[in-house]
Amino acid sequence: MNTIWVLLIATSVLFSLLNGRLDEFTKAIFEGAKSAVEVSLFLLGIVSLWLGITKVIENSGLIHRLSGFFQYFVRRLFHNIPPDHPAITSITLNFLANLFGLGNAATPLGIKAMQDLKTLHPGEETITFEMMVFIVVNTASIQLIPFTVIGILADYGSNNPSAIVLPTFVATFLSALFALGILFAARRIFK
Amino acid sequence: MKTVSFISQLIIPVFILFTILYGCAKRVRVYDCFVSGAKSGVGVVIKVFPYLLAIFVAVKAFQTSGALEFAQEWLGGLLEFFHVPIDVVSIALIKPLSGSASLGVFTNIAKTNGPDSQASLISAVIMGSAETTFYVLAVYLGSVGIKRTRYLVPVCVLADLVGIIIAISIVKFFFHFS
Fold first, then answer.
1. In chain A, which ranges are continuous DSSP H helix?
2. pTM attached to this predicted model
3. Which of A129, A142, A144, B133 has a Cα-to-Cα distance from B127 of 20 to 30 A?
4. ipTM
Protein backbone atom coordinates (compact mmCIF):
# COMPACT_ATOMS: atom_id res chain seq x y z
CA MET A 1 0.00 0.00 0.00
CA ASN A 2 2.93 2.28 0.75
CA THR A 3 4.22 2.07 -2.83
CA ILE A 4 0.76 2.58 -4.33
CA TRP A 5 0.13 5.63 -2.16
CA VAL A 6 3.47 7.28 -2.92
CA LEU A 7 2.95 6.52 -6.61
CA LEU A 8 -0.54 8.07 -6.66
CA ILE A 9 0.48 11.23 -4.80
CA ALA A 10 3.76 11.76 -6.65
CA THR A 11 2.29 11.32 -10.15
CA SER A 12 -0.61 13.57 -9.19
CA VAL A 13 1.67 16.43 -8.15
CA LEU A 14 3.80 15.93 -11.25
CA PHE A 15 0.82 15.95 -13.60
CA SER A 16 -0.83 18.95 -11.96
CA LEU A 17 2.46 20.79 -12.40
CA LEU A 18 2.66 19.82 -16.10
CA ASN A 19 -0.99 20.56 -16.78
CA GLY A 20 -1.02 23.78 -14.77
CA ARG A 21 -3.60 22.38 -12.37
CA LEU A 22 -1.81 23.01 -9.08
CA ASP A 23 -4.79 24.94 -7.77
CA GLU A 24 -7.09 22.03 -8.64
CA PHE A 25 -4.71 19.64 -6.90
CA THR A 26 -5.00 21.53 -3.63
CA LYS A 27 -8.77 21.65 -3.96
CA ALA A 28 -8.85 17.93 -4.76
CA ILE A 29 -7.02 16.86 -1.59
CA PHE A 30 -9.45 18.84 0.56
CA GLU A 31 -12.33 17.38 -1.35
CA GLY A 32 -10.89 13.88 -0.87
CA ALA A 33 -10.63 14.54 2.86
CA LYS A 34 -14.23 15.68 2.91
CA SER A 35 -15.53 12.58 1.18
CA ALA A 36 -13.47 10.41 3.57
CA VAL A 37 -15.42 12.01 6.43
CA GLU A 38 -18.74 11.49 4.65
CA VAL A 39 -18.01 7.85 3.92
CA SER A 40 -16.81 7.30 7.50
CA LEU A 41 -20.01 8.74 8.92
CA PHE A 42 -21.99 6.44 6.65
CA LEU A 43 -19.77 3.51 7.70
CA LEU A 44 -20.26 4.39 11.37
CA GLY A 45 -23.98 3.83 10.95
CA ILE A 46 -23.96 0.58 9.02
CA VAL A 47 -20.96 -0.97 10.76
CA SER A 48 -22.51 -0.37 14.20
CA LEU A 49 -25.85 -1.69 12.97
CA TRP A 50 -24.37 -4.94 11.69
CA LEU A 51 -22.08 -5.38 14.67
CA GLY A 52 -25.21 -5.10 16.82
CA ILE A 53 -26.97 -7.77 14.78
CA THR A 54 -23.97 -10.11 14.78
CA LYS A 55 -23.69 -9.73 18.56
CA VAL A 56 -27.23 -11.11 18.83
CA ILE A 57 -26.22 -13.95 16.49
CA GLU A 58 -23.25 -14.74 18.74
CA ASN A 59 -24.99 -14.52 22.09
CA SER A 60 -28.04 -16.53 21.02
CA GLY A 61 -25.90 -19.39 19.80
CA LEU A 62 -27.19 -18.96 16.26
CA ILE A 63 -23.56 -18.61 15.26
CA HIS A 64 -22.93 -22.32 15.86
CA ARG A 65 -25.86 -23.30 13.68
CA LEU A 66 -24.78 -20.99 10.85
CA SER A 67 -21.15 -21.98 11.01
CA GLY A 68 -22.07 -25.66 11.13
CA PHE A 69 -24.16 -25.21 8.03
CA PHE A 70 -21.53 -23.45 5.93
CA GLN A 71 -18.45 -24.95 7.50
CA TYR A 72 -17.80 -27.43 4.73
CA PHE A 73 -17.63 -24.79 2.00
CA VAL A 74 -15.65 -22.17 3.90
CA ARG A 75 -13.27 -24.65 5.47
CA ARG A 76 -12.21 -25.93 2.07
CA LEU A 77 -10.93 -22.44 1.35
CA PHE A 78 -9.51 -21.66 4.80
CA HIS A 79 -7.59 -24.64 6.10
CA ASN A 80 -6.13 -23.08 9.23
CA ILE A 81 -9.28 -21.84 10.95
CA PRO A 82 -10.34 -24.13 13.80
CA PRO A 83 -13.89 -25.52 13.49
CA ASP A 84 -16.50 -23.50 15.42
CA HIS A 85 -14.35 -20.38 15.30
CA PRO A 86 -16.50 -17.22 14.86
CA ALA A 87 -14.46 -16.26 11.77
CA ILE A 88 -16.19 -19.01 9.78
CA THR A 89 -19.60 -17.47 10.39
CA SER A 90 -18.57 -13.89 9.64
CA ILE A 91 -16.71 -14.94 6.49
CA THR A 92 -19.76 -16.89 5.31
CA LEU A 93 -22.14 -14.01 6.02
CA ASN A 94 -19.84 -11.60 4.17
CA PHE A 95 -19.67 -13.92 1.12
CA LEU A 96 -23.47 -14.28 1.11
CA ALA A 97 -23.94 -10.51 1.35
CA ASN A 98 -21.60 -10.05 -1.62
CA LEU A 99 -23.37 -12.76 -3.58
CA PHE A 100 -26.72 -11.03 -3.22
CA GLY A 101 -25.23 -7.61 -3.92
CA LEU A 102 -25.91 -6.29 -0.40
CA GLY A 103 -22.92 -3.97 -0.31
CA ASN A 104 -24.15 -2.19 2.83
CA ALA A 105 -24.04 -5.44 4.75
CA ALA A 106 -20.95 -6.90 3.09
CA THR A 107 -18.45 -4.27 4.28
CA PRO A 108 -19.37 -4.38 8.00
CA LEU A 109 -19.48 -8.17 7.98
CA GLY A 110 -16.13 -8.18 6.19
CA ILE A 111 -14.64 -5.95 8.90
CA LYS A 112 -16.03 -8.38 11.49
CA ALA A 113 -14.47 -11.28 9.59
CA MET A 114 -11.07 -9.54 9.53
CA GLN A 115 -11.27 -8.97 13.30
CA ASP A 116 -12.23 -12.59 13.88
CA LEU A 117 -9.31 -13.72 11.71
CA LYS A 118 -7.05 -11.40 13.71
CA THR A 119 -7.99 -13.16 16.97
CA LEU A 120 -6.15 -16.21 15.64
CA HIS A 121 -2.91 -14.18 15.68
CA PRO A 122 -3.36 -11.32 18.18
CA GLY A 123 -0.81 -8.50 18.10
CA GLU A 124 0.55 -9.58 14.73
CA GLU A 125 1.07 -6.73 12.25
CA THR A 126 1.86 -8.94 9.28
CA ILE A 127 -1.02 -10.23 7.21
CA THR A 128 -1.89 -13.93 7.43
CA PHE A 129 -2.56 -16.09 4.40
CA GLU A 130 -6.19 -16.58 5.49
CA MET A 131 -6.70 -12.81 5.50
CA MET A 132 -5.26 -12.62 2.01
CA VAL A 133 -7.62 -15.33 0.74
CA PHE A 134 -10.52 -13.48 2.30
CA ILE A 135 -9.57 -10.09 0.81
CA VAL A 136 -8.85 -11.52 -2.63
CA VAL A 137 -12.27 -13.22 -2.79
CA ASN A 138 -13.84 -9.93 -1.70
CA THR A 139 -12.06 -7.81 -4.32
CA ALA A 140 -13.20 -10.27 -6.98
CA SER A 141 -16.75 -9.62 -5.68
CA ILE A 142 -18.82 -12.63 -6.74
CA GLN A 143 -22.27 -11.23 -7.42
CA LEU A 144 -25.40 -12.98 -8.68
CA ILE A 145 -27.38 -10.02 -10.05
CA PRO A 146 -25.91 -6.53 -10.58
CA PHE A 147 -29.11 -4.57 -9.94
CA THR A 148 -27.67 -1.05 -10.18
CA VAL A 149 -26.04 -1.72 -13.53
CA ILE A 150 -29.19 -3.31 -14.98
CA GLY A 151 -31.17 -0.32 -13.73
CA ILE A 152 -28.90 2.15 -15.55
CA LEU A 153 -28.97 0.13 -18.80
CA ALA A 154 -32.76 0.01 -18.58
CA ASP A 155 -32.91 3.77 -17.92
CA TYR A 156 -31.18 4.47 -21.22
CA GLY A 157 -33.57 2.24 -23.13
CA SER A 158 -31.69 -1.04 -23.48
CA ASN A 159 -33.56 -3.75 -25.46
CA ASN A 160 -32.82 -6.40 -22.89
CA PRO A 161 -30.97 -5.09 -19.84
CA SER A 162 -30.96 -8.44 -18.03
CA ALA A 163 -28.96 -9.97 -20.92
CA ILE A 164 -25.83 -9.02 -18.99
CA VAL A 165 -26.71 -11.14 -15.96
CA LEU A 166 -25.21 -14.37 -17.24
CA PRO A 167 -22.06 -12.82 -18.77
CA THR A 168 -21.48 -10.86 -15.53
CA PHE A 169 -21.88 -13.97 -13.42
CA VAL A 170 -19.51 -16.00 -15.60
CA ALA A 171 -16.99 -13.12 -15.61
CA THR A 172 -17.12 -12.58 -11.86
CA PHE A 173 -16.85 -16.30 -11.13
CA LEU A 174 -13.92 -16.78 -13.51
CA SER A 175 -12.09 -13.72 -12.22
CA ALA A 176 -12.52 -14.92 -8.63
CA LEU A 177 -11.03 -18.28 -9.61
CA PHE A 178 -8.13 -16.61 -11.40
CA ALA A 179 -7.58 -14.24 -8.48
CA LEU A 180 -7.33 -17.18 -6.08
CA GLY A 181 -5.06 -18.96 -8.55
CA ILE A 182 -2.73 -15.94 -8.66
CA LEU A 183 -2.72 -15.75 -4.86
CA PHE A 184 -1.87 -19.43 -4.42
CA ALA A 185 0.82 -19.12 -7.09
CA ALA A 186 2.26 -16.07 -5.30
CA ARG A 187 2.44 -18.07 -2.07
CA ARG A 188 4.59 -20.68 -3.82
CA ILE A 189 6.87 -18.04 -5.33
CA PHE A 190 7.39 -15.85 -2.25
CA LYS A 191 7.59 -18.51 0.40
CA MET B 1 -36.36 -10.69 -13.06
CA LYS B 2 -39.11 -9.38 -10.81
CA THR B 3 -39.16 -12.41 -8.53
CA VAL B 4 -35.37 -12.35 -8.24
CA SER B 5 -35.31 -8.71 -7.24
CA PHE B 6 -38.15 -9.35 -4.79
CA ILE B 7 -36.24 -12.18 -3.17
CA SER B 8 -33.15 -10.02 -2.82
CA GLN B 9 -35.25 -7.31 -1.19
CA LEU B 10 -36.59 -9.88 1.21
CA ILE B 11 -33.23 -11.24 2.41
CA ILE B 12 -32.21 -8.58 4.92
CA PRO B 13 -35.60 -8.02 6.60
CA VAL B 14 -36.20 -11.77 6.96
CA PHE B 15 -32.67 -12.37 8.20
CA ILE B 16 -32.97 -9.65 10.86
CA LEU B 17 -36.40 -10.85 11.96
CA PHE B 18 -35.16 -14.44 12.20
CA THR B 19 -32.07 -13.41 14.19
CA ILE B 20 -34.11 -11.40 16.69
CA LEU B 21 -36.80 -14.04 17.14
CA TYR B 22 -34.14 -16.74 17.56
CA GLY B 23 -32.48 -14.58 20.23
CA CYS B 24 -35.80 -14.16 22.04
CA ALA B 25 -36.42 -17.90 21.89
CA LYS B 26 -33.00 -18.48 23.48
CA ARG B 27 -33.86 -15.93 26.20
CA VAL B 28 -31.23 -13.42 25.12
CA ARG B 29 -31.82 -9.75 26.09
CA VAL B 30 -31.88 -8.85 22.40
CA TYR B 31 -32.03 -5.06 22.78
CA ASP B 32 -29.15 -4.80 25.27
CA CYS B 33 -27.17 -7.27 23.24
CA PHE B 34 -27.66 -5.26 20.03
CA VAL B 35 -26.59 -2.04 21.75
CA SER B 36 -23.46 -3.55 23.23
CA GLY B 37 -22.47 -4.90 19.81
CA ALA B 38 -23.20 -1.61 18.07
CA LYS B 39 -21.01 0.22 20.60
CA SER B 40 -17.91 -1.46 19.17
CA GLY B 41 -18.72 0.02 15.76
CA VAL B 42 -17.47 3.43 16.87
CA GLY B 43 -14.00 2.08 17.64
CA VAL B 44 -13.83 0.28 14.32
CA VAL B 45 -14.70 3.35 12.25
CA ILE B 46 -12.25 5.57 14.14
CA LYS B 47 -9.55 2.98 13.46
CA VAL B 48 -10.38 2.84 9.74
CA PHE B 49 -10.75 6.59 9.23
CA PRO B 50 -7.08 7.59 8.70
CA TYR B 51 -6.63 4.80 6.13
CA LEU B 52 -9.74 5.92 4.28
CA LEU B 53 -8.57 9.51 4.37
CA ALA B 54 -5.19 8.58 2.88
CA ILE B 55 -6.71 6.62 0.00
CA PHE B 56 -9.49 9.12 -0.77
CA VAL B 57 -7.11 12.06 -0.89
CA ALA B 58 -4.69 10.20 -3.19
CA VAL B 59 -7.43 8.99 -5.54
CA LYS B 60 -9.09 12.38 -5.81
CA ALA B 61 -5.75 14.07 -6.51
CA PHE B 62 -4.93 11.46 -9.15
CA GLN B 63 -8.26 12.09 -10.88
CA THR B 64 -8.03 15.87 -11.02
CA SER B 65 -4.32 16.17 -11.84
CA GLY B 66 -4.88 14.83 -15.35
CA ALA B 67 -2.80 11.71 -14.69
CA LEU B 68 -5.88 9.55 -15.17
CA GLU B 69 -6.67 11.14 -18.55
CA PHE B 70 -3.07 10.61 -19.63
CA ALA B 71 -3.25 6.91 -18.73
CA GLN B 72 -6.56 6.64 -20.59
CA GLU B 73 -5.13 8.07 -23.80
CA TRP B 74 -2.05 5.92 -23.58
CA LEU B 75 -3.94 2.70 -22.92
CA GLY B 76 -6.70 3.62 -25.40
CA GLY B 77 -4.32 3.15 -28.32
CA LEU B 78 -3.34 -0.25 -27.02
CA LEU B 79 -6.98 -1.35 -26.68
CA GLU B 80 -7.89 -0.08 -30.14
CA PHE B 81 -5.37 -2.56 -31.48
CA PHE B 82 -7.43 -5.37 -29.91
CA HIS B 83 -10.72 -3.92 -31.24
CA VAL B 84 -11.89 -2.87 -27.78
CA PRO B 85 -13.79 0.44 -27.46
CA ILE B 86 -11.65 3.20 -25.93
CA ASP B 87 -14.31 4.03 -23.34
CA VAL B 88 -13.60 0.71 -21.64
CA VAL B 89 -10.27 2.15 -20.44
CA SER B 90 -11.91 4.81 -18.31
CA ILE B 91 -14.15 2.31 -16.51
CA ALA B 92 -11.30 -0.19 -16.09
CA LEU B 93 -9.06 2.47 -14.53
CA ILE B 94 -11.63 4.12 -12.28
CA LYS B 95 -13.44 1.02 -10.96
CA PRO B 96 -10.65 -0.17 -8.60
CA LEU B 97 -10.22 3.39 -7.30
CA SER B 98 -13.68 4.77 -6.62
CA GLY B 99 -17.19 3.32 -6.52
CA SER B 100 -19.16 6.55 -6.96
CA ALA B 101 -16.87 7.86 -9.72
CA SER B 102 -17.12 4.59 -11.66
CA LEU B 103 -20.91 4.72 -11.47
CA GLY B 104 -20.78 8.19 -13.00
CA VAL B 105 -18.40 7.08 -15.74
CA PHE B 106 -20.59 4.05 -16.51
CA THR B 107 -23.75 6.16 -16.74
CA ASN B 108 -21.96 8.47 -19.13
CA ILE B 109 -20.82 5.58 -21.35
CA ALA B 110 -24.38 4.19 -21.50
CA LYS B 111 -25.66 7.66 -22.39
CA THR B 112 -23.16 8.49 -25.14
CA ASN B 113 -22.75 5.06 -26.76
CA GLY B 114 -26.26 3.69 -26.25
CA PRO B 115 -27.06 0.93 -23.74
CA ASP B 116 -26.71 -1.95 -26.22
CA SER B 117 -23.32 -0.92 -27.61
CA GLN B 118 -20.20 -2.97 -27.09
CA ALA B 119 -18.69 -0.27 -24.89
CA SER B 120 -21.73 -0.23 -22.58
CA LEU B 121 -21.97 -3.99 -22.30
CA ILE B 122 -18.28 -4.43 -21.50
CA SER B 123 -18.45 -1.62 -18.96
CA ALA B 124 -21.57 -3.18 -17.42
CA VAL B 125 -19.81 -6.50 -16.94
CA ILE B 126 -16.74 -4.77 -15.49
CA MET B 127 -19.01 -2.81 -13.11
CA GLY B 128 -20.62 -6.05 -11.94
CA SER B 129 -17.53 -8.20 -11.74
CA ALA B 130 -14.87 -5.85 -10.35
CA GLU B 131 -14.64 -4.28 -6.91
CA THR B 132 -13.27 -0.97 -5.61
CA THR B 133 -10.08 -2.78 -4.70
CA PHE B 134 -8.20 0.02 -2.96
CA TYR B 135 -11.17 0.98 -0.80
CA VAL B 136 -11.59 -2.65 0.29
CA LEU B 137 -7.86 -2.91 1.03
CA ALA B 138 -7.84 0.33 3.05
CA VAL B 139 -10.91 -0.56 5.11
CA TYR B 140 -10.16 -4.23 5.76
CA LEU B 141 -6.46 -3.81 6.50
CA GLY B 142 -7.08 -0.64 8.52
CA SER B 143 -9.73 -2.25 10.70
CA VAL B 144 -7.22 -4.75 12.13
CA GLY B 145 -4.09 -2.59 11.98
CA ILE B 146 -2.16 -4.72 9.49
CA LYS B 147 1.04 -2.93 8.43
CA ARG B 148 2.93 -5.57 6.44
CA THR B 149 0.80 -6.89 3.57
CA ARG B 150 3.43 -9.17 1.95
CA TYR B 151 2.43 -9.89 -1.67
CA LEU B 152 -1.29 -9.06 -1.29
CA VAL B 153 -1.36 -5.71 -3.14
CA PRO B 154 0.45 -6.89 -6.30
CA VAL B 155 -1.78 -9.98 -6.34
CA CYS B 156 -4.91 -7.81 -6.16
CA VAL B 157 -3.70 -5.47 -8.92
CA LEU B 158 -2.82 -8.40 -11.19
CA ALA B 159 -6.16 -10.05 -10.42
CA ASP B 160 -7.98 -6.83 -11.36
CA LEU B 161 -6.14 -6.74 -14.68
CA VAL B 162 -6.99 -10.38 -15.41
CA GLY B 163 -10.61 -9.67 -14.39
CA ILE B 164 -10.87 -6.88 -16.98
CA ILE B 165 -9.43 -9.08 -19.74
CA ILE B 166 -11.94 -11.78 -18.76
CA ALA B 167 -14.83 -9.27 -18.84
CA ILE B 168 -13.86 -8.07 -22.33
CA SER B 169 -13.48 -11.62 -23.71
CA ILE B 170 -16.77 -12.78 -22.18
CA VAL B 171 -18.76 -9.92 -23.67
CA LYS B 172 -17.18 -10.51 -27.08
CA PHE B 173 -18.03 -14.20 -26.77
CA PHE B 174 -21.63 -13.82 -25.51
CA PHE B 175 -22.66 -10.96 -27.77
CA HIS B 176 -20.63 -12.01 -30.85
CA PHE B 177 -18.60 -8.83 -31.25
CA SER B 178 -15.48 -9.28 -33.33
1. 2-18, 22-59, 62-77, 86-99, 103-118, 129-140, 147-155, 165-190
2. 0.87
3. A129
4. 0.86
